[in-house]
Structures are given as structure tokens and as C-alpha cells.
Amino acid sequence: MEKQPGQEDLSEGAQVTIEVLEAIIKARKLFKLYPPNNPIYIKAAETVFEKFSGFFHLDESLKLKIARNQIFYANEVVYHNLEKDDNLALFLFKDGIRELTFNRDVSHEELDEFLRVMSIDFDKDAPDDDIVTVLWEKDFEHIKFYADDFILTDDELSDELKDAEKIRGNAFTDDNLKKAYHSSLDEIPDIEYILTPLTQEELQHISEDLESQDRLKVEKFITILFELLSLTQKSESIRNIVRSMKEILGYCVKRGDFRNASYTLSRLNQALQEGVTGKNNAAVFEPVFVTANSGPLISMIGEVMESSMTINEADYLDFIKHLNKNAIKPFMRLLDELASVKKRSLVVETLTIIGKEDVTTVATGLKAGRWNVVRDTLLILGNIGTADALENIVDMLSHSDERVRREAVRTVGRIEHRDTYLYLSKSLDDTSSSIRMVAARQLANIRTDEVKKIFLSAISERGFASREFNEKKVFYGIITNWPDQEVKDFLTRTLRSTKIWRRTRHDETRACAAHALGVLMDRDSIPLLSKTSKAKNRTLRESSIMAIKKITA
Amino acid sequence: MTTTSLETVSKDIISTLAVLIKTAQIHSVSNVAVVNIIKKLIAILTPFASPESVSLQLVGEFFHVNKRRVKYSMENVFNYDYLVKEFKKRGLGSIIFVEPPRERDLTALVDAVITSGLAEEPFTLIRNKLERVDTIHVEELQKVKEDVSELDKKRLVKKSYYSTAALTKNLFNKIKSGEMISLKRTKRSLRTIVDQIIEEESLMIGMTTIKDYDEYTHYHSVNVSVLSVALGNKLGLSKKALTSLGMAALLHDIGKVDIPIKILNKPSEFTDDEWEEVRHHPEYGALIILKFKGVNDSTIHNLIPAFEHHINYDLSGYPRVRSRKTPDFFSRIITIADQYDAMTSARVYSRKSLSPEKALSVMYERSRTQIDPYLLKVFVNLVGVYPIGSLVVLNTREMGLVFENNNNPEFIVRPRVLLISDRSGAKIEGTAVDLMEKDETGNYKRSISAVLDPHEYGISLAEYLL
Predict the structure, then answer these.
(1) Which of A317, B175, B220, B459 could pair with A172 as two cysteines, CB 3.0-4.6 Å apart?
(2) Which residue among B298, B381, B421 places its CB closest to the CB of A128?
(3) DSSP per position, A147-165
(4) Between residues A306 and A292, which one has the greater pLDDT?
């Protein structure tokens, strides 16, 4: 905004008004750039409210007069701009606004709405509206305006005014009046119909009808598009209908209305089966399916997810079921872009549904730079469950990020393949204790002799004894899945063994063996357990006592 | 008190006060029906009015209770509307209950309101009658904007109507010639119509009774728009919804631009083939809207009624559709307005038009088949038993044209009438009379004894309105 000449000469009211206008101008710009839940957006709105509050300490209403390039407060110029662009005065003036008044009781919500109106790009986003119509529709309680209303001159109305004059000229003559009068002297039959006031039930019915009408309009519009399709034969009309179907998809998605987006695609599939437009059905409707699976539409879904809109998950998933593998790449991009965990889990669910058609494309997410994208890709592949991308998944078992490796272990564990156990066994040597435990638990689901041998071998390794007690307990717990003599002998040997060096760690291992014998309910080990129940090491002592109790219970 | 409960109490006050005044217009203030309502109002006010007072204030078209605007919903729109008109008629701005009123205080208020109904200075009368009532104060209605003279009001209404007609004609012509269209100016003009319907419904509805234009289609579109908006307003639709409805109504017959003009202007009955062609105009209309506009709120609102306005309530109309869903709410409103205006107009292929009350009678027969019965009832309440423009014969042998309905459903047969001839049948300058007026003996001065068809005699409100 241009600096006002001699601003210091202005009254206090005018100076405060200038601050209000500056805040509005700034908010207008920011509202165009940021969504409503963005902190910058919120701060801009707050600032405007504060400036208004500052003014209302001086006066109970702020009345602005609008000229082409200037705005006045109490005859003082508080805004002046000769530019065509970004000119607040011209923006208001060109549509007819001449006065704008803000009342002291104006609420935060009203000001927010007002700022939203001020930031509309009418040419682009609302070509059939102007600021007067929109402000008027808002029906603000504490913001009033005066507009120069008549948009047609008498010259432009000349035909209609001539029509009016002609009719007025033909208005009833004395003769006509006499005829009517004489007719009135004859007997005239009554028109009979019953007029009854509306009952409460009828009012209720209308009220409910009114409430539901907005909700059903979009569905009705879509239904009509398909009715038109069966009524028209002209190819230009069909093209326009199909174009509208594409647009209604975007319209619905932008508003988070997945129910109607899904409805559109269901009806489309139905129309395809019925052969509505004749031989070239598939070709005719192809553009709609392309749009449904396109990058721009899916980006819109991302924007909806990031916004404060509530998404009905059931409707959303219904919509997703209509998509095909062409949507995979755009959704993979979305996975990379979304910040919220909850929203990303929705995308994971999406890719689980559509990813089945092209696992290879989904697997490209394993090359992502961000660990969480890789992790989510693994989750998706695990949910899908096919072995098609197993090789790529296995590579992730040696990923640098522990969180990725953990998920890779889980994913490998969920995929049925003859070599799954081999892959998982590699992770028993992972540098992270938690990953080793996850791998162990996954392996535990495979109850084969080979796996038993793997566990016995892992437990027997030199470094195993120095692991944390909890981890050792998990491993020993797992080998109880094989309640055979070999395992019992192994456990008994372990319980019996003693060491001089690193005794505490070794006693913890013995405690794990005691616990495992308890799980196996091995009565033969009671004498040994009785002995170890008196050990100096508390963990070993308590584990042995618990094992005895379990066996003898 | 919470905001929600304040809103509920406010609505109750307005509804109960409206019912009280209506009832007191029929019965004396000591009648048990009136007394019961007074007691009910006291029960509502008492908890509210202690310790602080309760003020019911009319500002513009809206009531405020304790300076909070009261929104009205469908259930109480009639009472709300009725009370606004009663307040305005009396120049009454506020009623302030400084403390919980007693029964005798409210009786005095009701009596003051009723007796002031036809007084020369109604507000002064009310104030004087309540001088000794210490629990109730009244204040005069504040002018929200500059007083507009009757002539100015007519001028504004006329300009809105003809501006919209001109813009509609322009729109139809542009569509016919394949040019791009913008609805911006039309919407803006429609806004003035909505405003005037909210404030001066009778004058604007009166404009729709002026027929016999050479070009029927675009005036018909404006009339359907006016009647639809008036009906929507009665249903309590927001301004935004009223504009959407008005625009959809303006465009409902847009499909006719694709019907050959020689068929539309054919002076005799259509052949079967010609009727078949005309029956395509709803689908043509929908296709036109799709062709010229991308999908947005406006397209959705406009397309649906363009397609559905002849489908009928029971889906027996045209075009024949496979979906068996009830027509859209706006479509059903526009169907009513369309049928009413069409029947009361002499069109090219049907020179004989029906009188307004005859048209309503026919529409009643079509209730539940072609027409939504609930909305029809609201429409009849809107236009009245003797719709605006009806040529009525009074029991005094005077003749007149109905130009404003009575908002009290109990007195719907007593509208305001513009006298056009005296007892001997001689033409007189239009004098407005209220059929609620009573003489010294307490009898009504005038009543309607018969209705004539105004078209038969070429009589309309044109001379008065134009």
C-alpha cells in the first residue's frame, strides 16, 4: 500500500483504520496461499481481529467509503492506490460497493468469513459471482455494505420498458370495466377447493425434506448425467456428459465427498456393462477412468487428507476399490508427501487394495530416501502378501535404518515362501536386540525341524550368553515350541552347566532354561530345578521356583 | 443461559406471541383460548425475565431478543413472518418485559395490539394504552433505511423485474447463438428480486400477474423465478439458497432455445410429433447447461430443475427416467411456480388462460400426482385463496383487484384490494382498502362475494404497478 502523505496529520481514528486495512490486505494475500488450518493463515486472521478491536475502543462502528482508487474514513483518505492489480479500493468499487460498515459486535467468525470473501479470485474460482452477491449471500449480522445496485441503464432496458408501456396502454378500458360489472350482476359459480392450514406433521415433513436436499443434490446430478446418456444420441452431447463426469469426480474429491465419487464410478461400470452408448462404450468412458486414476486427482485427495476435513473412511475405501494400477504411482508420491501418520496409514490401506495389480511398482517405494516411506512400502507389501517382491524386501533386512529393518523382518515373516525361514534367520544376528527378537518371533511361526535347529544353534553361539536377559528369555521361550527330548536335554544341559567367568550372565541363561523347562512341564527336571531353586543368583532362583510351581500345579 | 437454550426460548417467545395475537383477533381477550396462551407466554418469560429484562426488538426483517438475532427455521417461519408484519403495520419496534409480566399486563398488551390494528397512529395508541402497565414498555420501530415512498417502491420493483427480464432474454439469445455466457449480472439482478420479495413480496408477485407480453418465454422465466423465490422465502430458505433457487427457476426452460421457433410459436394445437419435440426441452436444457458451464455448485443447482421440472411428483411426467427417486426439492418448487404461471398466462398455443383461483383449483386436483402436496399447501398459503391479481366483486358491488394477501391464515379471505370501480360500475382511481376494516357496529365493511376472470376483461394490476 502506498504510504499516505502526511499520515501523522490524520486523526487517531484514521490512523487506526489504516492499520486495519493493512492487516486486511496482508490477510487477503496469505489466505490465497495457505489453507485454513495453517498457523500463518490463523495468525493473519487473528491480527485483523486485533486491529478491529483496537479501532472499536475509539468508536462503535467503522464506516468506510469506497471510491475507485481510494478509501475514506470520516472524509479522511486511509487508502490510496492507482495500480490496477492488488488494489483493494478498485476490487470493491468495480462491483459496485460504495460503503462498508463494521459494527463493534462483529465476531471472529464473521471477520474470517469476510476475509475469505475478500480473497476469492472471482475470475478464476467464481466467474458467475461478484463480491456484492457473495457478501449479500453471507448475510453478515455485523458487517453491512451499500452497493450501487442497478446494473442496467434505461437504454439497455428499452425493449422491456416498451413492453411495459404497451401493456399499460392496453390496460382495461371503461368498456371492459362495464362488461365486468354487468357480469358481476349475474350469478357466478363458486370455485371450490379446500384450504387447510399446514399441520405440525406437514411442517415437520417439509423441514426434514429441506434438511436432506443439499445432501442429495450431487447424487441427483450424477444420476441425471447417466439418464442423459441414455436419452441422447448426439456425439457432442455425449462428449459433454463425459467431460462433466470427469469434472464431477474432481468436484466430489475436492470436497471429501467420496461417497458420490464412488457412486459415479459404480454407475459408470454399470453403464459399461449395459452398453449404454453402443459399440464404443469403453472408449467413450475411458477419459473418466483415466481422470479417476490420475496424478492431479490423487493430489487432490492428498490435499483433502492434509486439511481439516473429516474423511468417511468407509466411503473412501469404496471409492478406492474402483481404481486400478495406474493410481499406484500417484499414491506412492502421496506417501512421500504426507506428514500425518494417520493419513499415511490411509494411503497404506489404499495401496494395499490397488497394489495387488502391480506389486513391482509398489516395490519401487523401497528405494525411497525417507525411511518412513520405505517402512510403509514394506507394510503395504506385507499386507498384500505375495512373494513377487520378496527379493527386494529381503534386501531391506540389511537397511541402515533400524526401523526399516524391523518392518522388513515383519514383512518377510508374513510372506509365505519356502525360503522365508532362511531370510529371517539372518536377522537373528542383527545388531539390534529388538530386531533379533522380532525375527525370532516371526521364525517361531514356522514350526519345522530346520527352524528348531536354527534356534538351538543360535542359542549355542558364543555371544548369545552375553545378550540381555529378556532377549534370551524370548529365544528360550520359542524353543519350547518343540517339546521333544532333544530340546529337553538341551535345556537340562544348560541348567546344569556352570561357569566361573561372567557367572551372572550365565546364570541368567540358566534361568531362561529353567523357565523353558517349566513351560514344557518336564517333571524329570524337578530334582535339578529344586537344586537351582536354592542358587545364589536371584533370577535363577526365582525362575526355578516358578518352574517347579508350574510343573507341580 | 446457554446459547442454544437462549435461541430456543427466543423462538418460543416469538411463536407464542404470534399465536396470541392471531387468536385474539378472533376471540375476545377474556376468552379461555386467549387466556391459556397468555399463561403459556408468562411461563416462557418468567424464568427468562428475572433478574434481567427481556426485549423483543424488530430490526429490519429480523427479530432480536436481548440484542441477539433470532434465526428462524421451517417450523416457525409462518409465525415469525406474521409477527414481523404485525409489528411493522403498527410501527412497533420493541416490546420490553422489564420484569415477569402478570396476566393482566399481557391482557392489556394484547388488547392494545388488537385495537391499534386499524388505527391512524397505531403505535401512539399502543403506548397510551400501556402507560399504566409497569412491567411492559414499548418502543417505536426504528427506520433501518430511508423511508421509501410507495411510488419509489414500485419503481424499484419494476426496475428489478425488467432488468432481470432483459438479462434473461440476453442470456437465452447468447445461448441460442452459441456464445459464452456469464451469469454474474443476472445473479446480481436476481439478488434485488430476492431482497424485494423479502421486503415487498406483494408488489413483486403482482408483477407476475401482468401478462400478454409478445414474447412469452423470458417473462415466464422471470415469473417462475419470482414465484419460486417467494415460495422459498416462505419456507425459510437462506438468501444464498433463494438466489440459487431463483437462478435455477430462470433457467428452467432454457432447453426451449433448441426447439424450433415455428413449433414454439405455433398458434394452433401441436401435433403428436410436435409435442414429442417439445417434451425434449428438459433434456435439451440440461445438455445446454453442461455445454456452457463446468461442473460447480451453480451447474448442479441449475441443471437438476431444468431436467426435472416436468417429471412430476409421482414420476409420471417427462422425460421418462429409470431412476425412481423423488424429484429434487427445488424442482418441485419450480414445478408449482411453472404450472401456476403457465395456467394463468395466455400462451401462443393456448390462448385461453385461467384465472388465478381457477388455476389453484386445477393444481389442487394434481396434488400428489404432478405436484408435491406439502409444497402446494405452502404455495396456496403464499398466494392466498384470492391470489394477487384476482378480480373480485365485493358485497358492496364495488370491484377490485387483490394486491396484498392477509398473513393471518384465519383471515386469508380478507386481503387488501385495490378498488377499480364504484358501486355503479364507474371506474375510479385505484384506492386501497383492507377487508379487515370494520364499521361502527363491528361488522366488516366489505367482503368478497365473487371472483371474475380478469383475463376475460383485460383487467390487471398493470395500470397500478407500471
Answers:
(1) B459
(2) B298
(3) E----S-TTTTHHHHHHHH
(4) A292
* Neighbour-count burial of A335, counting CB atoms closer than 10 A to its CB (0-12 exposed, 13-18 middle, 19+ buried): buried
pLDDT band at A327 (very low <50, low <70, confident <90, very high): very high
What pLDDT, in 10s, does the model give residues A405-438? 999 999 999 988 889 999 999 999 999 999 999 9
Q: Whats the size of chain B, residue-wise?
A: 466
* Alpha helix (H) residue ranges in A255-385: 258-274, 281-292, 295-306, 313-320, 328-337, 341-354, 359-363, 371-384
**Helix (H, G, I), strand (E, B), or coil: what is residue A70?**
strand
Phi-psi map region of A75: left, alpha, beta (phi>0 left; psi -120 to 50 alpha) = left
Closest CA to A515 of A482, A489, A464, A476: A476
| A238 neighbourhood in chain B, CB within 8 Å | none
* Per-residue cell: A455: 534356534
pLDDT (0 to 100) of residue B422: 87
DSSP state of B102: P
* pLDDT band (50, 70, 90) for residue A485: very high
Classified as helix, coil or strand, B227 is: helix
A248, A441, B120 from A517: Cα distances, Å: 67, 19, 107
Closest CA to B181 of B288, B308, B275, B326: B288
pLDDT band, residue B184 (cuts 50/70/90): confident
**Interface A-B: count of C-beta contacts within 8 A:** 227
Query: ∠A280-A284-A286 over CA atoms, to 5°?
Result: 115
A49 vs A47: CA distance, rounded Å: 5
pLDDT digits (tens, 9 = 90+) for A63-118: 999 988 999 999 889 999 988 888 999 999 988 899 999 999 999 999 999 999 99
| Amino acid type, B137 | H
Query: Cβ separation of A206 and B385 shorter than 8 Å?
Result: no
Q: Do A191 and B457 touch (CB under 8 A)?
A: no
Cell numbers representing residue B461 in the block: 394490476
Task: Determine, for residues B466 and A133 on separate chains, whether the beta-carbon distance falls below 8 Å.
Answer: no
- The letter for the amino acid at A493 is R
Q: Which residue has the cell 506428514?
A: A339
Nearest to B239 among A139, A177, A198 (CB): A139
B37 with B198: CB under 8 angstroms? no
For residue A188, the model assigns a pLDDT of 57
- In the sheet that A70-73 helps form, which strands lie side by side, from edge to edge? A76-80, A70-73, A61-66, A97-103, A143-147
How deeply is B7 buried, as exposed, middle or buried, from its count of CB atoms within 10 A (0-12, 13-18, 19+)?
Answer: middle
The per-residue pLDDT for range B325-349, each reduced to its tens digit, is 899 999 999 999 999 999 988 665 5
Q: Report in angstroms the alpha-carbon separations of B174 from B170, B180, B350.
A: 6, 7, 28
Q: What residues are paired with B350 via a beta bridge? A: B347
ipTM for the complex shown: 0.82
Q: Is the pLDDT of residue B147 over 60?
A: no
- In angstroms, the Cα distances linking A490 to A494, A497, B108 are 6, 11, 104
Q: CB distance B73–A207 less than 8 Å?
A: yes
Which among B88, B106, B137, B92 has a CA at the least distance from the CA of B17?
B106
DSSP output for B358-402: HHHHHHHHTBTTTB-HHHHHHHHHHH-SS-TT-EEEETTS-EEEE
